[in-house]
Structures are given as structure tokens and as C-alpha cells.
Design a protein that fits this description.
Layout (H helix, E strand, L loop, with lengths): L27 E5 L4 H12 L6 E5 L7 H7 L7 E4 L2 E4 L1 H11 L10 H24 L4 H15 L16 H21 L8 H10 L12 H13 L3
Parallel strand pairs: 1-2
Antiparallel strand pairs: 1-3, 3-4
Length: 238
């Protein structure tokens, strides 16, 4: 079961004028951007496991990022990154496994071997899924993006004992996909009037169920903001 609901006050993003928080002072910090889907994966998991007091959220303004973030915290200069036990680590898919393995709260990894294997397969595919959809924004979008959502629809048929990818229990697989499906759904609907749920009943149900998860709700971005951000990034004429 997920941890109790926490109404967390979200801090203001740190920008180029902000002072750096202390490094390696014993506080575990998750560096995020409030609109970044990669960072959102780890943010959702942290909330779901009830780690609000154990992992401090540190939002970064990616449009005006502080120089100290690259120089002193995370040389890759991307989010998410996690400061824990005297080191800083990144890469969202690695981080969701790391947080699940190294912190208390409900485990989101299956014990059943068949589910375990399928979970690894789908987590690996998530990079391909994102690439297909991101690339489609520059081409014949609906035609190119469609098969990626068909893949998810088919995957959701594998374990029929519940609405999630591995059946009745939420897992890291769902957390890997939630932020991207959220952003893609808003952008494809807002710009191309393309409904990713049309003709995909399992995906429709999955999105419905995911939207009920309290750990996810505070991490969501307003669909209008998604359309603005993605339009500026993917549709701007260079």
C-alpha cells in the first residue's frame, strides 16, 4: 500500500541567482525540475514510498540554471539527480530502482519471475517508446506515434488481474511510463487533436487508475503548460 497522503509545500525553483544548498551534510536531496518527465519518475516514487521527510525535493530552474549545479553537484547538468550517502547519482531509470532498493516503504518490484522478466523488458522499452514519440513530433506525428501506444495497449493485456502493467499492483514499470504518457497525451491532444486512448481500452483504464494515485497528483503539470513547453521545444522554427 502507498504511504499516507502528504500535502507538501513545494519550494520555489533555484535559479542562477540562488545560493547552493549545503552538499553532503547528511541530507538526502532529489534535484528535479517540476516539468521534467524524467525527474517526475523519481518524484512520484519518493511520494509513493512516503519519503517526504527522508528525501528533500530541490527544484532547479532549467531555463536559468545555477552554475553551481553543474560545477559542484552533478556534472551532467541534468535532472534528476540524487544526493545520498556522500555521492550524487543520476539517470531516472537507475534512480527509481536505487530509491526502491535503498529506502523504506512499499517495494515496487515484483517477486514473481514472469512479472520480473516482463518488468525489465518494459522498463528497457520505455527509452524506445519515448524516442519514437519524441521523433514523431517532427514527422507524420499521428502515424509515427500510434504504434508506440499500441505497444503499451498490448503490454497491458499480459497480466489481466488488474489495470497496471504487472496486474493489480503498481510497479516501477508504471512509474517509468506515467510522466511521459501524461505529457504526450496533453501535447498530442492539444496540437494534433489526437486522442491516444481512442481504440485502446486498456490504456484508457490505465490512465484512469493512474490519475487516482495520490503520490502522482502533486507531480502533474497543467496540460496547457505542457503544450506551451513542448511547442516551443519541438515545433519552433529554427
Amino acid at each position: 500500500m502507498a504511504a499516507a497522503i502528504v500535502n507538501e509545500h513545494l519550494p520555489k525553483p533555484l535559479d542562477a541567482t540562488s545560493e547552493q544548498p549545503p552538499l553532503f551534510d547528511g541530507t538526502t536531496r532529489l534535484y528535479v525540475s517540476y516539468t521534467c518527465p524524467f525527474a517526475q519518475r523519481v518524484w512520484i516514487l519518493r511520494n509513493y514510498k512516503g519519503l517526504h521527510d527522508k528525501i528533500k525535493l530541490v527544484p532547479i530552474d532549467l531555463q536559468n540554471r545555477p552554475a553551481w549545479y553543474k560545477e559542484k553537484v552533478y556534472h551532467e547538468n541534468k535532472v534528476p539527480s540524487l544526493e545520498h550517502n556522500g555521492k550524487v547519482i543520476g539517470e531516472s531509470l537507475d534512480l527509481i530502482k536505487y530509491v526502491d532498493n535503498n529506502f523504506e516503504g512499499p517495494s515496487l518490484q515484483p517477486k514473481d519471475p514472469a512479472k520480473k522478466e516482463f518488468a525489465e523488458e518494459l522498463i528497457t522499452y520505455s527509452d524506445t517508446f519515448n524516442k519514437i514519440v519524441f521523433t514523431s513530433f517532427k514527422g507524420d506525428t499521428v502515424k509515427e506515434a500510434g504504434p508506440a501506444f499500441d505497444h503499451l495497449e498490448n503490454a497491458l493485456h499480459k497480466f489481466n488481474d488488474g489495470p497496471f502493467f504487472l496486474g493489480h499492483e503498481l510497479s516501477l514499470v508504471d512509474i517509468a511510463y506515467i510522466p511521459f504518457v501524461e505529457k504526450f497525451q496533453a501535447f498530442l491532444s492539444g496540437v494534433w487533436n489526437y486522442d491516444i486512448t481512442a481504440g485502446r481500452p486498456k490504456l484508457t483504464k490505465w490512465i484512469e487508475e493512474v490519475n487516482k494515485i495520490d503520490a502522482y497528483k502533486p507531480t502533474k503539470t497543467d496540460p496547457k503548460v505542457i503544450v506551451e513547453l513542448f511547442s516551443a521545444r519541438f515545433l519552433a522554427k529554427h
